[in-house]
Design a protein that fits this description.
Blueprint lengths: L2 H7 L8 H7 L12 H9 L12 H8 L3 H22 L11 H21 L5 H7 L4 E6 L2 E6 L8 E5 L7 E13 L1 H4 L5 E2 L18 E2 L4 E13 L5 H11 L6 H32 L5 H15 L4 H18 L2 E3 L4 H4 L5 E4 L6 E12 L2 E5 L10 E3 L2 E3 L5 H12 L4 E5 L2 E5 L2 H12 L12 E8 L4 E7 L15 H4 L1 H7 L4 E7 L1 H5 L2 E6 L2 E4 L2 H16 L3 E10 L7 H4 L3 E13 L3 H10 L3 E5 L4 H11 L8 E3 H5 L3 H8 L4 E3 L3 H13 L4 E5 L5 H6 L2 E5 L5 H6 L2 E3 L4 H41 L9 H11 L1 H7 L25 H28 L9 H20 L16 H19 L1 H7 L6 H27 L8
Parallel strand pairs: 9-23, 9-26, 19-22, 23-25, 24-25, 26-27, 27-28
Antiparallel strand pairs: 1-2, 1-3, 3-7, 4-5, 4-6, 4-7, 8-28, 10-11, 10-22, 11-12, 12-13, 14-15, 16-17, 17-18, 18-21, 19-20, 21-22
Helix pairs in contact: 4-6, 5-6, 5-11, 10-11, 10-28, 11-28, 11-29, 12-28, 14-15, 24-25, 28-30, 28-31, 28-32, 30-33, 31-32, 31-35, 32-33, 32-35, 33-34
Length: 957
């Protein structure tokens, strides 16, 4: 058996006894591996590092840009055009002062620019694996041949005995041999911020989820406190971190909906163009009864090929997406990959993590149980402002002595500090203890006010006792303190004052309700301390179960008067306690998320929760936010583990809550949703989320709590870690997609008109080509490009988030866009051809000082100016232009005026006239061009009226 397969085959290390694991790896817990064994194992297992697959090189990415079918056609056009210009130059047909090869040079410049644009977008190298490697290569202390040595993490091998202490980053997966108060922060791997208390002497079931394997440690996690000795069981790609790296590299980058639509668009345009070119060439040859006019037909074909390709479209789309990213940044969403802007608009399902995204990532006390009463506590975050309510009525804390005693315990049996930073309340320390300090502050008891109860000793929390205790010395005041804002014991709690007269010390205890209650013999009821009865114990445990079923984290509190500072272990001293009460807390939902979830529902988007937290907590939060209903199914990672992919596919349509999930589960959920035709946005912050983020159609990382790995694997980063930001970004994505469709209609409508106009010239027997390739490039880049950019910033329509998302797999020509382009192109062509016939005949009359070829300039000008009316009319699909606020998009008006001026300059500025091959037009002929162009605007407005009369709101949404 190979080293890799052996390591994998014994992968359920949490279900083995420590001695069994040591024997299986043939090592020694006290002396470690022998030095001479290490090279053999390094050869067998390889180095303890993550392996990277080879991706595409920069040159391959650059060359791929020129495989685009539209760019290939333009390259062919440039080559043929260069050949024709060379032939003309050889025979002396180039006029004096005329720039040779200007058409092929201009076309190749466009090709190169579009290639570079695509290259720049695509060469944002994937850095997720590089960020992952940073977590896997610290130095580490091990025992080898009975000696304690420090080695680079990549030299670890299975069988090594690794030593852990606070502050260390763990370099490999391992089975705990022994530990002392060991707590490990596994948020990078499991997504949960709270440190995990480890226990070496447990044997766990094989199906235990990753977050519950408390007898194991994992590569890339961090020791928060305590120490431990670990048997290294897995290294390199066989670690949990390595499995994530393998999943990350196995995820293929699929083209976005926009990229797929642009590919489809290119195929249709090029195919249509080639068919039309064939028809024109064959028709011209038949008409001429030979090849006498083949050069003219080739020139017409080249002009048609240039006309059909929207050269400015890639640049316009890129700028539109870039503008979308700027608007999203204002909504606290940072877009890492430009196509993601539009892709957001197609999202049908949002899979959100719980902690920090749906919730505040701040533990907040919600409920208190004392003296057989359930008190509700209001307030948000760590702000020490809130009310205590009994039966929905606000009460005064001082009227309930048992609450005062409980709040003193919350403030004193605590290591966290509550402070105000930059106008906001924050805690230093554990979030759970921060919640307790905050609730005490809401009761008017601040930690630093309890100066008359200084801590003199403590019994720290450990995973076996599941409690912590602090011992305070009672300093009785004989006169009021100078600082009247502070409180002594007598003003804090009258019940304790009666006890401390003869007892100089108090011990406060908090921890697991069941284990703390078992240590109590008395209970506080009002101002009295009475024996604790069995019925009262049963009621307290029942209330504890009720709170836990609501997803609350529950702690029990007690205290005990002492004659002297106790010595020895906490287990011996924490007896005969006085029960104070229960405190239930929750990482409270963000208040704004409820409205965001409702907005998702109205927009046809399904929100889901995928979390590593407990199912009860997940259910409570999901129901509170409206993500799920009471009675809805919660699917756990353990259940997922036993499901086939087909069974999971059946569940993903009905289950909205997934709890205690592992990294591979998140990836499977996303893949199952995608197989069901869903378009998935997935949020995440930990290393464990990276494969799912990369697999999702939109991967969304957390900007505040997110790891570098998750950010590099994502398409978008939430700068405020807020679910509401996803909804705002989705709205912006819909606006961007609507505007992209709007300017595609605008650009391609005129392109079809150009192609039909050029194709008609030889069939109508007109001499020459009405539009040169250079003039067509001007139209496609400037006349079409500037107004298209202005249309890209058209404001959102009122109902943008009140309709279902459009299918991400719909054709670019769906919902009437294709018919609109053809219909508009035909009208463009009809108007222009009528003008062209009139102008051709009109200009044949010899007028001194006027060129008879100026009919071509009239055709060129009419097409350009007609596009200006088109730009104004196309702003709305159903509103007439006079019904719209002309100043709601000033960019359109500015682009129309600027483009019109530029077009006139091309006619009347001699250097540009010579370069672009235009001719001077008399004012009357220019006015005729404007008159014919205005017919395009009139047609589109009449079409809106016609559709309105038929009762159809639109041919395109």
């Amino acid at each position: 058996m190979s080293g890799k397969s052996e390591s994998q085959g014994l992968g359920v290390w949490h279900s083995w006894e420590v001695d069994q694991a040591i024997n299986l790896l043939n090592t020694n817990a006290d002396s470690g591996l022998k030095a001479e064994e290490v090279p053999q194992r390094q050869q067998k297992y390889g180095e303890n590092e993550l392996k990277e697959n080879n991706g595409r090189s920069s040159w391959e990415i650059l060359l791929d840009q020129f495989k685009n079918i539209m760019l290939l056609m333009l390259i062919a056009v440039a080559v043929i055009s260069a050949f024709l210009d060379f032939m003309a130059w050889q025979v002396g047909e180039i006029a004096p002062g005329e720039v040779p090869f200007k058409d092929p040079i201009a076309i190749m410049a466009i090709v190169v620019l579009n290639g570079i644009l695509g290259y720049v977008q695509e060469t944002r190298a994937e850095k997720a694996l590089a960020a992952l490697k940073k977590l896997s290569s610290p130095n580490v202390r091990v025992i080898r041949s009975g000696k304690y040595i420090e080695i680079p993490g990549k030299q670890l091998v299975p069988g090594d005995v690794m030593l852990l202490e606070a502050g260390m980053q763990i370099a490999a997966d391992g089975r705990l041999i022994e530990q002392s108060n060991l707590q490990v922060r596994e948020s990078a791997l499991t997504g949960e911020a709270e440190a995990v208390s480890k226990q070496a002497n447990l044997i766990l079931p094989e199906e235990t989820s990753l977050g519950d394997r408390i007898n194991l440690v994992f590569q890339g996690t961090e020791v928060v406190q305590g120490r431990g000795k670990v048997l290294v069981t897995n290294t390199g790609m066989e670690t949990e971190l390595g499995k994530i790296a393998a999943m990350l590299q196995s995820v293929d980058n699929e083209p976005t909906p926009l990229q797929q639509r642009m590919t489809q668009l290119g195929n249709v345009l090029v195919t249509g163009s080639l068919v039309l070119v064939g028809i024109v060439v064959v028709g011209g040859i038949i008409q001429a009864r030979g090849l006498a006019n083949i050069r003219e037909l080739l020139e017409i074909s080249l002009s048609m090929a240039v006309a059909v390709v929207p050269e400015g479209l890639p640049a316009v789309i890129t700028v539109t997406l870039a503008l979308g990213t700027q608007r999203m940044v204002r909504h606290h969403a940072l877009i890492r990959k430009l196509p993601a802007v539009e892709t957001l608009g197609s999202v049908t399902t949002i899979c959100s993590d719980k902690t920090g995204t749906l919730t505040q990532n701040k533990m907040v006390v919600q409920s208190i149980y004392a003296n057989e009463n359930i008190f509700r506590v209001t307030g948000e975050g760590y702000t020490p402002i809130g009310e205590f309510q009994l039966d929905n009525q606000t009460i005064l804390v001082e009227d309930y002595p048992e609450i005062s005693a409980l709040m003193v315990a919350c403030a004193i049996c605590n290591d966290a500090v509550l402070q105000k930073e930059k106008g906001e309340w924050a805690i230093l320390g554990d979030p759970t203890e921060g919640a307790l300090v905050t609730v005490a502050g809401k009761a008017g008891i601040e930690k630093d006010q309890c100066y008359s109860l200084p801590r003199v000793s403590e019994f720290p929390f450990d995973s076996e006792r599941k409690r912590m205790s602090v011992i305070c010395q009672v300093e009785v005041e004989t006169s009021p303190p100078v600082e009247t804002s502070r409180q002594n014991v007598s003003t804090i709690d009258g019940v304790m004052t009666n006890l401390i007269a003869s007892q100089p010390y108090l011990m406060f205890t908090k921890g697991s309700p069941e284990l703390t209650l078992a240590r109590c013999t008395e209970i506080i009821l009002g101002n009295n301390c009475l024996p604790l009865t069995d019925n009262q114990r049963a009621e307290i445990l029942a209330e504890n179960d009720r709170m836990a079923s609501q997803g609350l984290r529950v702690l029990g509190f007690a205290y005990k008067p002492l004659l002297q500072i106790p010595e020895g272990e906490g287990e011996k001293c924490e007896v005969n306690l006085v029960w104070l009460g229960l405190v239930g807390m929750l990482d409270a939902p963000r208040p704004e998320v409820r409205a965001a979830v409702q907005e998702c529902r109205h927009a046809g988007i399904r929100p889901m929760m995928i979390t590593g937290d407990h199912q009860l907590t997940a259910r409570a939060i999901a129901i509170d936010l409206g993500i799920a209903q009471i009675g809805d199914t919660v699917l756990t990672g353990q259940q997922l583990q036993h499901m086939t992919d087909q069974e999971l596919e059946q569940q993903v349509d009905i289950v909205n809550i997934y709890a205690r999930v592992a990294p591979e589960h998140k990836l499977r959920i996303v893949q199952a949703l995608q197989r069901r035709g869903k378009f998935v946005a997935m949020t995440g912050d930990g290393v464990n989320d990276a494969p799912a983020l990369k697999q999702a159609d939109i991967g969304i990382a957390m900007g505040i709590t997110g790891t570098d790995v998750s950010k590099e694997a994502s398409d978008m980063v939430l700068l405020d870690d807020n679910f509401t930001t996803i909804v705002a970004a989705t709205k912006e994505g819909r606006v961007v997609y609507t505007n992209i469709r709007r300017f595609i209609k605008y650009i391609l409508g005129s392109n079809v008109g150009e192609v039909l106009t050029i194709a008609s010239a030889p069939l109508l027997g007109l001499g020459g080509v009405p539009l040169t390739p250079l003039q067509i490039l001007w139209m496609n880049l400037v006349t079409d490009g500037l107004p298209a950019l202005a249309l890209a910033v058209e404001p959102a329509e009122a109902d943008v988030m009140k309709r279902p998302p459009f299918s991400p797999r719909e054709s670019i020509f769906a919902r009437g866009l294709g018919s609109y382009i053809i219909r508009t192109g035909i009208i463009f062509a009809v108007i222009t051809i009528i003008l062209m016939l009139w102008a051709y005949n009109h200009c044949q009359t010899q007028v001194q000082g006027l060129d008879p070829e100026r009919w071509q300039t009239m055709v060129f000008t009419s097409l350009c100016i007609a596009q200006m009316g088109h730009a104004i009319a196309i702003r709305s699909h159903n509103k007439l232009t006079i019904e719209m606020n002309p100043f709601s998009n000033m960019f359109v008006l500015g682009a129309v005026v600027l483009t019109t001026i530029l077009q006139i300059i091309l006619i009347y500025f001699p250097p540009l006239r010579a370069f672009f091959g235009t001719h001077w037009l008399p004012p009357t002929e220019l006015a005729i061009c404007f008159g014919f162009s205005a017919l395009m605007f009139v047609w589109i407005e009449l079409e809106k009226l016609f559709l309105r009369l038929k009762g159809r709101s639109s041919f395109d949404r």
